[in-house]
Write a structure and sequence with these properties.
Number of helices: 2
Helix content: 10-25%
Radius of gyration: 11 Å
Strand order of the largest sheet: 2-1-3-4
Structural class: alpha+beta
Strand content: 35-45%
Order of helices and strands: HEEHEE
CATH architecture: Roll
CATH class: Mainly Beta
Oligomer: single chain
Largest sheet: 4 strands, antiparallel
CATH topology: Pdz3 Domain
Distance between the termini: 21 Å
Number of strands: 4
Amino acid sequence: MYVTDVISDSPAGIIGLKPGDLVTHVNGEEIRDMASYYKLLREKTDVEVWFGATRNEAKIETLKFKR
């Protein structure tokens, strides 16, 4: 799932995602499409949300947002 826009105070903005980043995982689970992304956010994210992403073909795996 590609990031197209980031609101500064949103979870994406807080963890440093930028437009053009490709989010590939949520809490270690692979994202296949928008439906799987939202399902993972609902089911796997009680307190912390870990994102795996790539930026300019480099992996970014330490992005964490605490609810």
